[in-house]
Amino acid sequence: MIDAELVHLEVDGGIATVTLDSPQNRNALSRQLVSELTDRMNTAAATTGTRAVVLTHTGTTFCAGADLSEASTGPMTGTASALLALIRTIVDLPLPVLARIDGNVRAGGVGLLGACDIVVAGPRSTFAITEARLGLAAAVISVSVLPRIDGRSAARYYLTGATFDAAEAQRIGLVTLAADDIDAALTTLTADLLKASPQGIIESKRIANRSVREAIERYGSEMVDLSARLFASDEAHEGMTAFLERRPPRWTA
Description:
Elements: E1 7-12, E2 15-20, H1 31-46, E3 52-57, E4 61-63, H2 68-71, H3 77-92, E5 97-101, E6 104-106, H4 108-115, E7 118-121, E8 126-128, H5 142-145, H6 151-160, E9 164-165, H7 166-172, E10 177-178, H8 182-193, H9 198-208, H10 210-231, H11 234-244
Parallel strand pairs: 2-3, 3-5, 4-6, 5-7, 6-8, 7-10
Antiparallel strand pairs: 1-2, 8-9
Helix pairs in contact: 1-3, 3-4, 3-10
């Protein structure tokens, strides 16, 4: 039996639209979704005439982070490595990547936004870096998130796992633009991008992403190892089990 496609690619007018379409598990970062998203990004970059990529989603959640049903059944080293490779792919893609978000973004999904060049979030968007509540830490995604947001906000949201809205996400640097009409905002942004030359885009993107690329090279392997170690811990097992069973973990006051 062939699994249904979880990530779709359409190209129109020089804009490649990549859509996460696994609403049954809130577009969680399963092995299949990460593999397909990496493939669709590379395919978009290789498609003649493509000038930009828009990453979006179906359903009410852009991405819920790690697929906890997979995480609870085996080691996560391969999954963490694949996520790091996906972040690197987005950052190094020779095309601007714009995220179109109008839903919930959690944990690893925040890391995808950090890898994108421009993020537009609609009024239904909410964000949370929830790993600490599960006995984990925002390890791999830190290579793309920490260079984007201010340090005080990083400490607050990494430590508390609290939810924040699109306006706050824009204030701290995670989101480029909080917009009531995200499609109108994207139309303006893509029109502006199409005025730039391909060479100008490539080199400008490389400069703008310098700190993220340096973080990947400096901390990527360490964060993969940390992620795998935490996922294998007893505390994380309790946190993930509690989440899947819809009950508070044992450390909750």
